[in-house]
UniProtKB/TrEMBL annotation:
InterPro entries from the UniProt entry: AASS, NAD(P)-bd_dom_sf, Sacchrp_dh-like_C, Sacchrp_dh_NADP-bd
Gene Ontology terms, MF aspect: saccharopine dehydrogenase activity
Xref: PANTHER family: ALPHA-AMINOADIPIC SEMIALDEHYDE SYNTHASE, MITOCHONDRIAL, SACCHAROPINE DEHYDROGENASE
Organism listed in the record: Streptomyces mirabilis
Domain Saccharopine dehydrogenase NADP binding: 11-124
SUPFAM superfamilies according to UniProt: Glyceraldehyde-3-phosphate dehydrogenase-like, C-terminal domain (SSF55347), NAD(P)-binding Rossmann-fold domains (SSF51735)
Name by which UniProt lists this protein: Saccharopine dehydrogenase NADP binding domain-containing protein
Cellular component GO terms, alphabetical: cytoplasm
Gene3D superfamilies, alphabetized: Dihydrodipicolinate Reductase, domain 2 (3.30.360.10), NAD(P)-binding Rossmann-like Domain (3.40.50.720)
Limits of the Saccharopine dehydrogenase-like C-terminal domain: 129-376
Entry's Gene Ontology BP terms: lysine biosynthetic process via aminoadipic acid
UniProt keyword list: Oxidoreductase
Length: 383
């Protein structure tokens, strides 16, 4: 393995959208120098002022060419841009010997560049936000605790569910609050979901049709599978002697969401791209987010294991956070987790190459403790 390139102490934070929150302030605390890149220098300056960070970070007008001109070996680039922008940005990082971090899932285009990044000693930190991100930390922690009780070599079956959602703190008729672009929300629903149910790999071509009720501490929600859960069995390092009865990573919504979105689902079934783009714009206008709105983030990860001997173990992490006038819950969870990852790039504790949040149980426990101290509270029930 190549040696990691020593961090220079300079962080380039690219973008200042809905998920940029107090994590940027935490990055200013940890780094020697921070630059916030936005569409124009004026907009970057306004964003810094809104976050109370004027004078603590330098505003810049973003283009890849402008970034490349200022990028030095060992710098850290944090991408808050849409997923298609990550691979071109990573290419600049590899060329300049800089590290890269984002909160998004790994794309094939990013994966293709990982060997070159690792050879250059660059960290490529991905899936380091809320979901994906904190959910990974919860899962690694639960699996390690279960292994300690049941035994990694014991024959066992298990149920692992991981549900996350950004929802209105005060329920509305639509049963939803857009915490990211409406077009992205609709298109995510158009992607098939693969998961394990009753011990069998299952695919839901229309994920919302697999929606089911889900109780958390007596409160009713609705959940449905999202994306492809199956690869995470290997990513989480579950013992090969344990067989999944249920393994699903999915989305959580308020009770009544399925009914409230019935007309939206009819449009999605038609599959007209142009109409769905227009629908996203209509929904943004009909259900606008105002300064008075407060969001709520709920992330529940549960693991239940039953050994062939009859021994059982159950554990659950729950994060339930409401936004404030100063910062949305979504921005806090995403940006503070990402800032934590950036800090560990700066201190040299992450290896070069691809990383997805904290990929070991030991590191996950440390990161969870740090997040709790930094204002991202959660609870654990285990036994």
């Amino acid at each position: 393995m190549s040696e990691v390139t020593a961090a220079s102490g300079t962080v380039h934070w690219i973008g200042a959208g809905l998920s940029t929150g107090s994590g940027l302030a935490a990055t200013c605390d940890a780094a020697d120098r921070v630059r916030l890149w936005h569409r124009t220098e004026e907009r970057a300056a306004r964003s810094l002022e809104a976050l109370g960070l004027t004078g603590r970070a330098e505003p810049r007008a973003y283009t890849r060419e402008a970034l490349a001109a200022e990028l030095a070996p060992g710098d850290v680039v944090v991408s808050m841009l849409p997923v298609p922008e990550h691979a071109p940005l990573l290419a600049v990082c590899v060329e300049r010997g800089a590290h890269f971090a984002c909160s998004s899932y790994v794309s094939d285009a990013v994966l293709d560049q990982v060997p070159a990044a690792e050879a250059a000693g660059a960290v490529v930190l991905t899936e380091c936000g809320l979901d994906p991100g904190i959910d990974h930390l919860f899962a690694h922690s639960l699996i390690a605790r279960a292994e300690a009780e049941i035994g990694a070599d014991s024959a066992a079956s298990y149920r692992l569910t991981s549900y996350c959602g950004g929802i209105p703190a005060v329920p509305n008729d639509f049963k939803y609050r857009f915490s990211w672009a409406p077009a992205g929300v609709l298109n995510a629903l158009r992607s098939p979901a693969r998961y394990v149910e009753d011990g069998v790999e299952t695919t839901a071509d229309r994920p919302w049709e697999a929606t089911r009720p889900h109780l958390i501490d007596g409160e009713a929600f609705e959940v449905y599978p999202n994306r492809d859960s199956v690869p995470f069995v290997e990513q989480y390092g579950l013992p090969g002697t344990w067989k999944p009865e249920t393994f699903v990573r999915g989305t959580l919504r308020l009770d009544g969401w399925l009914r409230a979105w019935d007309t939206v689902f009819e449009e999605l079934k038609a599959g007209d791209d142009r109409r769905i783009t227009a629908l996203a714009q209509e929904l943004a206008r009909t259900y606008p987010t105002t300064d008075a709105d407060r969001d709520r983030v709920v992330l529940a990860v549960s693991l239940d294991v039953r050994a062939g001997s009859g021994a059982t173990w159950s554990g659950r992490y729950l994060l339930d956070l409401v936004g404030t006038a100063e910062e949305s819950a979504m921005a806090r969870c995403v940006s503070r987790t990402l800032a934590l990852g950036v800090r560990h790039i700066l201190d040299g504790s992450l290896p070069p190459g691809l990383g997805r949040a904290a990929e070991t149980a030991e590191r996950s426990e440390r990161w969870l403790a740090e997040l709790a101290r930094q204002g991202v509270p959660f609870t654990l029930r285990a036994g």
